[in-house]
Design goal:
Layout: H1 10-42, H2 58-115, H3 133-182, H4 188-219, E1 226-229, H5 230-240, H6 242-247, E2 251-256, E3 260-263, H7 265-281, E4 288-298, E5 322-331, H8 367-377, E6 381-386, E7 392-399
Parallel strand pairs: 2-4
Antiparallel strand pairs: 1-3, 4-5, 5-7, 6-7
Helix pairs in contact: 1-2, 2-3, 3-4, 4-8, 5-7, 7-8
Length: 401
């Protein structure tokens, strides 16, 4: 079995590269100097430098001179080679030190990556130095940690809120059962009341679980896309809330222009239904409910509408252009500060003063979160703007077919 040599570290490779390049350069320099030296000292004398009458000992002196020059050249070559070896050794040590200095930011990034977990993602490298490639790598790593920190914080908050929301109907169910069982002779009316309370709590838990499942599916992206019309989805959702609209005497204004769209019909239908149900739930009796669909070519840029709760970029409404479709739902209701509108898209955030006294506004708190997640899954976005005098205008914008 062949033993494989251990792989060299990048620091060792850089050091060997520095030393090899210096050796090649130094060797070429020594060779060039030696060649030039030999040519200079061994070239024949010019004719005007040769005496007309030679001394008897001329050949003896010439031979002795050649020996001296040969010895001097050989000695010079040996000294040059020794000096070259010394300089190569020193250059290797200096290269090792320089490589370590240059790679210190990478070592810091590696150490930070090893320490990173869900409890210390707030740490940042904040590498010093000029804006070079290593500095850019460190800043990119810091931005990645920032995104991970925000994602983990959102996940922890979501889990905590979901646990609290699920605990409430379960607690109501258990209380209703225990109170009824504690009575020695419970009447049929009391059993029926208990059954009604349990059914209501169970229905609330089921609605919350369904909303959580829809939110999870929408965050996984679009699967099995199909062609449909956003106006048809809005019309179907309006039919489902027609009875509630009549009960609350809402003023309906509907403009459903053809809006062809391609996507996951289940997710799109859920987003549209949540928009309309929220508009009814958090409306005032006799208030306005306006539903409009539109289709056109996108020439706008991001930032034209305030209170954005969706994703930007090159999707519909971004700088990328292209055909778009949108559904806009407006309602009357409690007045919402402009700086609090974006918070409504966070899971389980129902806003201030949005619960009605009769309990009809006690929803799951996931409606607009689902709308935003569905929009992002389809490359679109969701926006909300508070209306003067109260209420909200929410726009779901998607890429057209």
């Amino acid at each position: 079995m062949r033993m494989r040599a251990p792989a060299l570290t990048i620091r060792a490779r850089l050091t060997l590269t520095y030393a090899g390049l210096f050796t090649l350069g130094g060797g070429a320099l020594v060779l060039a100097l030696t060649t030039a030296f030999y040519r200079l000292i061994f070239q024949p004398l010019p004719d005007n430098a040769i005496p007309s009458v030679l001394d008897p000992d001329h050949d003896h002196f010439i031979g002795l001179s050649d020996q001296i020059r040969d010895a001097a050249a050989s000695h010079l070559l040996r000294i040059a080679m020794v000096l070259l070896l010394l300089v190569v050794a020193v250059s290797a040590l200096v290269g090792w030190w320089v490589a370590g200095r240059m790679l210190r930011p990478i070592a810091a990034i590696t150490a930070a990556a090893r320490r990173a977990n869900d409890t210390n993602l707030h740490e940042r490298l904040d590498l010093p130095g000029p804006p070079d490639e290593l500095k850019e790598l460190g800043d990119t790593f810091d931005r990645m940690l920032e995104r991970l920190d925000a994602s983990f914080a959102t996940q922890r908050r979501f889990v905590a809120n979901a646990s609290h929301e699920l605990r409430t109907p379960l607690a109501l169910t258990r209380t209703a059962v225990e109170v009824t069982l504690a009575k020695p002779t419970a009447t049929e009316a009391q059993w029926r009341t208990m059954a009604a309370d349990v059914a209501e709590s169970t229905g609330r838990a089921q609605r919350l679980i369904d909303a959580l499942l829809t939110l999870a599916r929408s965050e996984q992206g679009v699967t099995d896309p199909q062609d449909d019309d956003l106006a048809d989805l809005a019309a179907e959702a309006l039919d489902r809330i027609a009875v509630r609209c009549r009960e609350r005497d809402l003023r309906l204004e509907v403009e459903l222009a053809p809006t062809p769209v391609r996507g996951n019909l289940t997710l799109l239908g859920s987003a549209v239904a949540n928009l309309l149900e929220n508009a009814v739930t958090y409306n005032r009796d006799g208030g306005l409910l306006r539903v409009v669909t539109a289709y056109g070519a996108d020439t706008a840029t991001d930032g034209e509408s305030g209170g954005s709760g969706g994703s930007g970029g090159s999707g519909p409404g971004g700088n990328g252009g292209g055909d778009w479709v949108e559904l806009t739902v407006s309602n009357d209701g409690p007045e919402i500060p402009a700086d609090s509108v974006a918070e409504l898209f966070e899971p389980f955030h129902r806003g201030r003063d949005t619960r009605r006294s009769d309990g009809a506004g006690d929803g799951t708190g996931l409606g607009l979160s689902i709308v935003r997640a569905v929009a992002r899954a389809h490359g679109g976005r969701a926006e909300a703007v508070s209306r003067p005098g109260g209420g909200l205008t929410v726009t779901l914008r998607l890429q057209g077919r």
